Amino acid sequence: MHKYFIISIALLFLNGTLCAQNIPKEARNYLEEAKLYYDQADYVKSLEQYQASYKFAPNDPGINYSIALCYINTYSYDSALKYLLAARGTIKDPMFDYYLGIAYHANSRIPEAISSLQTFRSTLRASDKELLAQTDKYLTYCTNAQNLMAKPVKMTISNLGSAVNSKYPDYNPAISVDESTIIYTSRRANSTGGLISEMDGHYFEDIYMSNKNSDNTWGNSIQIDQTINTASHDACVGLSSEGQTMIVYKADGGGDLYYSTLSGTTWNKPVSFGKSINTDAWEACGNFSADGNYLFFVSNKKGGYGGTDIYWSKKNADGTWGLPVNMGPGINTREDEFSPYLHADNKTFYFSSQAHTSMGGFDIFHATIDLSVSPIAVKSMPENLGYPINTVGDEIYFVWSADNKRAYFSSAREGGLGDKDLYMLERPEAKAALVLLKGTISDCKTKEFIQANINVTDIESGKSLGKYASNSSTGKYIVTLPAGKNYAINVEAKGYLFYSKNIDIPKLENYKEIDDVICLDKIDIGTTIVLNNVFFDVNKATLRKESETELDKLFDILSKNPKIKIEVAGHTDSDGDPQANRTLSDARAHAVKDYLIAKGISADRIIYTRHGEDKPVAPNDTPENKQLNRRTEIKILEN
């Protein structure tokens, strides 16, 4: 926006000279220094000098206007209004009404903003194309603001408190999908390196984190160690759903994106996303899809629709990232788009934009997208989230809870602890068609937490939908399961038998959580596991295709451990004739054995047996309990 601020320094200081006889000597001592800094575009230091002179001449129009211009050139439009009003009627800069209009707008004084902008527009010629476009943009902002402020959204906003916020700027919140961890960026006096930016006078960025206490309050924040934080700018701009991978912005190469993984309680050294993502341009922020298979990020590289555009990249089988694809004109515009965030439902896409129906600056929008096609399809027009979620200022870096009811964001609104603070927004009603599966994974005997891999598969297609990992120190895991699929969940760790679970979510309107504390058994004689994702046709011993993923995992264990011998046992519920149930369970166990033999396992390593309805694990009194009793079990006989 600097190119639109056409400032006549000669005219500015001519006005100052006209009032010079009224300026005390004490004020003049600062004015020459202020002008030198201003001419060098160092508006922060220039403002300091003008404010020093203001103390001795608070009514001088030239000093007031100079202070206003310093605020405008540092994008503090709201702070400029007081000084513009003090200079009105005396300063004859042709840009004055434009500056006054954007300052009124920044203070939500919309009718006055429209009046000033229309007055300025009437002075322009047809050849003033850039100024006409900029003025019309602000007039559109004002119209959008009037419409949205007339229909406010019901919600509450609360400050996250002093455990997280400080008197310094705190912003860029990133949360784990279960809202137990928040990682954010701050510019505090203990910044690594202790450097101060000449652009805005704040300390360089460092990354901090806080964990939620059992009473839902936030614990005291800690500064992440120097593996992540360096003497330069380090900002957290995204976090994977389970909180195990952080996206870090560094000022390298004009601004690049890195990722760091969590090993227990230690964050590893950040690794560049590589040349497919980072370019010589500015890669500013990014976020993963909940399953970790997609990266959405921002770049101002050539070939986009505007200043900064949102791109997506899909992870390859080898863990590298594919060539980025622009999100297209359904999302990106001639203005800037920023802070992409795909909700855990894998279809609701949030982002910030200066266009669409923005009230001014960046507003938060959401649209529905479809990941099942390539390129990703935008299925709905972006919709403004409304006022007061959005305001006339910048709303950037909103991240949403899994149930879609809460958002975490930063704001410099009144009542905060300092500059920008972190806030939580809560709306009374929201829908999210997904299940959050969470808990801990440990060793069944020792109860020690272990790091395990969690594979999520679409049972119908056999397609892998996501890979997750539990934390080695806490055992904690989080898996998001959008509605509309039948899922196979398989948990594996080296030296252990796998654990499986079947979760069918065909239709779901409201968010649901499932807590599942999982323990894994070592591969020892006598250990038994249930094959929860082995399925048969009704009243038949025909293995359904959906069973192959789980049986292949069993085959993999037998292949890697050639001394293992197993027993396959079939079980039924109590419905029907007992003898028929024994016959059916016998045939089903035999079918599992035949599958493994066909894959290459020696027949003498597998025996099978039938139990029918004789060994239930639950009363046969509900459909859910009967499902538990209809099972196929594997028992280790030799190792």
Key phrases:
5-stranded antiparallel β-sheet; single chain; disordered N terminus; 11 helices; alpha+beta; 34 strands; 639 residues
Provide an overview of this structure.
With 639 residues, the chain is of the alpha+beta class. It is built from eleven helices and 34 strands. Strands 6, 7, 8, 9 and 10 form a five-stranded antiparallel beta sheet that branches. A hairpin with a 6-residue loop joins β27 and β28. The relative contact order is 0.07.
List the helices and strands and how they pair.
Layout: H1 9-18, H2 25-39, H3 43-54, H4 61-73, H5 77-87, H6 96-106, H7 110-121, H8 129-149, E1 156-159, E2 170-175, E3 181-186, E4 206-211, E5 222-223, E6 234-239, E7 245-250, E8 256-263, E9 266-267, E10 271-272, E11 283-288, E12 294-299, E13 309-314, E14 325-326, E15 337-342, E16 348-353, E17 363-370, E18 377-378, E19 383-384, E20 399-400, E21 406-411, E22 421-426, E23 434-443, E24 453-458, E25 464-469, E26 476-482, E27 485-492, E28 499-505, E29 512-515, E30 518-520, E31 528-530, H9 548-560, E32 565-571, H10 578-599, E33 606-612, H11 623-629, E34 631-638
Parallel strand pairs: 23-29, 23-30, 32-33
Antiparallel strand pairs: 1-22, 2-3, 3-4, 4-5, 6-7, 7-8, 8-9, 8-10, 11-12, 12-13, 13-14, 15-16, 16-17, 17-18, 17-19, 20-21, 21-22, 23-26, 24-25, 24-27, 27-28, 31-34, 32-34
